[in-house]
Design a protein that fits this description.
This protein has a two-stranded antiparallel ribbon. It contains 16 helices and two strands. It is an all-alpha fold. Helix 2 packs across helix 3, helix 6 packs antiparallel against helix 7 and helix 7 packs antiparallel against helix 8. It has one domain. The two termini are about 15 Å apart.
């Protein structure tokens, strides 16, 4: 029954439908991270509500279909069922808005079962770079205002820390598709992004995570094959990366809850830790002023992301992903995201895919300071829980192939992914 379902004529249109919805939802959330259209996309306009409602209904049907037919065995179905049930309960208890972005995100993750991450990565890369380049051009032409914070300008109409996170996101996608075997020109682009960050935007957290990712990829690609690594070192690396979510998430919760202005504490001693210090201070304010509930509570925030005039004097924003999840989304969603990332890390560890494990580890570090863990425009790693990675890391064409043959080998094979 299962094979007949997977191999029949419906597989191709179902896969294409999924990629179309993914394209639409990802692009919408990427646009809302920019000021390209002012405040238009920050409100729930009827057209977007209709699109989201339609996508939600289709994805709900696809999720049920995927769980029944694509997950083999009762045991393998339990995890996606738990994700779907939690997302629907979140809708019931917390979603007072018309657009159910969290549940849509979770259903996109479930429905990625058997879908090619290479095709998905292509959607992320083409969409992301198109919007960032369009944003920069629109700013240079004076069509949209340049985002300013103090005396620092961003590269276009995307707030600088968000832009740095986009740089990291799209670099991670490239690294996943290439399985850590980057081309020299891709290293060149990565280094250029680092230079743009440190010279123009000065988004320290984004720069640090991007640097770790690029340096680690270079080490994996060129230095590891020539070096001897002891079993003990490998085992420590494996354990730290596999359980990093269980290390860093509680650590940030504890540091935030115990925050103090005492000048003798390490984060108050050094000026370069001002970003971490401010994150902890605002998180401590949340602990003091807001309750912790199962499904989250409303936390009024005001950040710099939508500001084009300068400094926001009454800034209050929960930048640490784990703190943000705890207060705004509740204990249940924080637990769910922890379990999903732990599952992803354990899957990669069991496959001995230590490079992708490293990529996830870098993102877990980033989420300890930034707030993008459940935002579709940034967190593209959740799809690693179910999507097919078999097409990644392969040579798609030789230098002697004609342009037409290269296209034939590269083009997305909708409906022919290995499950």
């Amino acid at each position: 029954m299962e094979n007949s379902i997977l191999n029949n004529k419906w597989q191709r249109p179902i896969n294409i439908l999924y990629y179309v919805i993914l394209f639409g939802v990802f692009n919408y959330h990427f646009v809302t991270s920019t000021m390209l259209f002012g405040e238009y996309f920050r409100d729930y306009y009827p057209q977007m509500v209709t699109f989201y409602d339609t996508s939600y209904k289709i994805l709900l049907a696809l999720s049920v279909f995927t769980i029944i037919f694509l997950f083999k065995g009762v045991k393998s179905k339990l995890f996606p069922i738990a994700i779907l049930v939690t997302a629907l309960l979140y809708n019931h208890f917390r979603d007072a808005q018309s657009m159910r972005s969290f549940s849509t995100f979770m259903m996109l993750v479930i429905c990625s079962k058997g879908k090619s991450y290479k095709v998905m990565g292509g959607i992320f890369l083409i969409s992301g770079w198109s919007w960032m380049v369009s944003s920069a051009i629109a700013c240079k032409l004076g069509k949209v205002p340049d985002v300013v914070f103090g005396n620092r300008h961003s590269l276009g109409s995307i707030y600088m820390t968000d832009l740095a996170c986009h740089f990291l996101t799209l670099t991670m996608v490239t690294c996943i598709i290439r399985k850590g075997k980057l081309k020299l020109w891709e290293y060149g682009i990565a280094v250029m992004l680092l230079a743009v960050n440190i010279l123009l935007m000065k988004a320290k957290v984004g720069f640090l995570c991007q640097f770790i990712l690029v340096a680690g990829t270079f080490y994996y690609q060129y230095l590891i094959p020539k070096s001897q690594i002891s079993y003990g070192t490998k085992n420590i690396y494996k354990k730290v990366c596999t359980y990093s979510i269980l290390i860093l998430m509680p650590l940030m919760l504890i540091l935030t809850y115990t925050y103090s202005s005492d000048p003798n504490i390490f984060y108050n001693k050094y000026g370069f830790l001002d970003t971490i210090r401010s994150r902890l201070m605002l998180g401590k304010r949340a602990f003091d002023e807001f309750p912790i509930t199962m499904w989250g509570t409303y936390v009024p925030e005001k950040g710099n992301g939508g500001n084009t005039t300068g400094v926001v004097t009454d800034y209050f924003f929960l930048d640490v992903s784990y703190i943000r999840l705890l207060f705004k989304d509740g204990i249940v969603i924080l637990s769910l995201m922890t379990v999903i990332f732990l599952k992803i890390q354990k899957i990669l560890s069991e496959r001995k895919d230590y490079y992708l494990l490293f990529v996830v580890f870098v993102f877990i570090i980033d989420c300890s300071i930034e707030h993008h863990i459940i935002e579709m425009g940034y967190d593209v790693l959740l799809y690693l829980a179910f999507s097919d990675l078999s097409s990644c890391g392969k040579v798609v064409a030789t230098a002697k192939d004609s342009a037409w043959k290269k296209w034939l080998k590269w083009r997305p094979r909708f409906g022919q992914e290995q499950l």
